[in-house]
Amino acid sequence: MEIKKNISLKAYNTFGIDVSASNFVEVSSVENLKEVLLVNNKPILILGGGSNVLFTKNYEGLAIKNNFKGIEIVNENQDQISLKVGAGEVWHEFVMDCIENGYAGIENLSLIPGNVGASPMQNIGAYGTEVKDLINEVEAFDLRDNSIRIFSNIECDFGYRSSVFKTSEKGNFFITAVTFKLNKKAGINTSYGAIEAELVRMNVSSPTIKDVSNAVISIRSSKLPDPKLLGNSGSFFKNPIVAEEEKNKILINYPNAPHYSQPNGSFKMAAGWLIEKCGWKGKRIDNYGVHDKQALVLVNYGGAKGSDIYNLSTQIITSVNDTFGIILEREVNIL
């Protein structure tokens, strides 16, 4: 295992921002990680799939690429199965493996970029499903005392695109594995977004989990650019949660504004719609801009600086606040 010097991180972030790390190493076991930490005295950056980070400058520390692999059955009965999955596994490949084996519940999360380790950190979600409803526990390495800790679902303190790993325990843990509880008997969820319409277009009347996955992949592919072809991190902003009074004020002038009621009486507004209404959709500035099919997605057309994209996001936040009185929050981590 070698700690490399002055390594470009362009290939390790889906925005394709060309910055460097003064030190870089890949680890695939707890023993690797302990060995690295024993000789390291620099700040640490943990990299997974690089799909939720925007680099605005070089990283003057140690970037550790999480390559923990493996999928292990830890519990199984007639109706359910629990899988312990290495944090370095590619998320979409894991989803496809589950579908191939008939494990249901995760199909609505198809084609989300990134690795398994980021799924609990971000509480990733799409099309009516959040990963918090599938996670049984998270295994993590405590960077402060080199111990292994198991977080139960409750201890993860999941919220909207958030968890304890982004709040009170931010920077304290290196996620090594996630255990998911999935169903062997499918309970199809097609009620959110355009899934039902896409299934009709596909001429599918009795969908399987594979059909739902195919529909999600088709929808996402039609709206979201492939990071391998066009630098981006998927959704750059969170959908804002507002009080009913705020929602009603917007509906006075925009009666068709998308909004979704939440269990606590608040409402989720569609950030992409808000951004589009402010005129940002498809706007290009030199070699970066806002995607022309989904206003939530900021893109690097090639050679852009992270600071350019960050400044663009600031302009968008200001514009939406001026127009709607809503302050958007970035979903992407800024470094």
Polypeptide structure, described:
This protein has 335 residues and is of the alpha+beta class. It has three domains: 4-66, Uridine Diphospho-n-acetylenolpyruvylglucosamine Reductase, domain 2 (2-Layer Sandwich), CATH 3.30.43.10; 71-183, Uridine Diphospho-n-acetylenolpyruvylglucosamine Reductase, domain 3 (2-Layer Sandwich), CATH 3.30.465; 231-334, Uridine Diphospho-n-acetylenolpyruvylglucosamine Reductase, domain 1 (Alpha-Beta Complex). It has helices spanning 30-39, 91-100, 118-122, 195-201, 209-223, 244-253, 271-277, 306-324; strands spanning 4-8, 20-27, 44-47, 53-54, 59-66, 71-76, 80-86, 125-126, 129-130, 135-142, 147-152, 173-183, 231-232, 241-242, 259-261, 267-269, 284-285, 288-290, 298-300, 333-334. The strands form six sheets. A five-stranded antiparallel β-sheet has the order 6-7-12-10-11, with no helix packed on it. α4 packs across α5. The chain starts with a strand and ends with a strand. 40% of the residues are buried.
